[in-house]
Design brief:
Radius of gyration: 31 Å
Structural class: alpha+beta
Order of helices and strands: EHEEEHHEEE
Helix content: 25-40%
Strand content: 25-35%
CATH class of the largest domain: Alpha Beta
Strand order of the largest sheet: 1-2-3-4
CATH superfamily of the largest domain: Ribosome hibernation promotion factor-like
Number of strands: 7
CATH topology of the largest domain: Double Stranded RNA Binding Domain
Length: about 180
Amino acid sequence: MRVRITTRHINNNRDPEKLKSYAVKKSKRIEKYLKTGAEACDVNFVLSSEKFRDTAEISINSRNLRAASSFETTDMYTAIDSAVDVIIKQIKKETDKKKTSKRRSGARNKEGAAGTPAAPETGIGKLTNIRVRRLPEKPMTIEEASSQLHVSDANFVTFRNSASNDMNVLYIDDRGQVTLIEP
């Protein structure tokens, strides 16, 4: 991590070297949050003073992260602390975004299809070994669904009714009778 500190319009009654050493010390806090590639990271501090306002600006440039922070107050040390706190929040937010996006893109079921819904949680425990089947996208009439039910070895068929455009279930009950469920 390369730290560069620039001071502008700092009064003679303040020691610029003390401010620079304080900024370097605070940059160590930032380095903890830059886990990967910290050696290829540039951290730039710009400390400036105008009348009664002290401003601390921090910018971070690295291969995979860019962040900037600026804070203005009447005390330079407070400005540096606050700007470092803001930049740390930004770094945490960016790394959390990357973690969640990686976790979401890796969610796949056994067949390899992305985006399948997770099993619902029950009071007894988690459901396991759930097979997901996709419904045919073409709407069917009740007669077509009935012939599909008799051809397949399943006890039920779910389909989108072409007449009402609603999801329906056609199943064979214990007595062997075909029953239609519609919303």
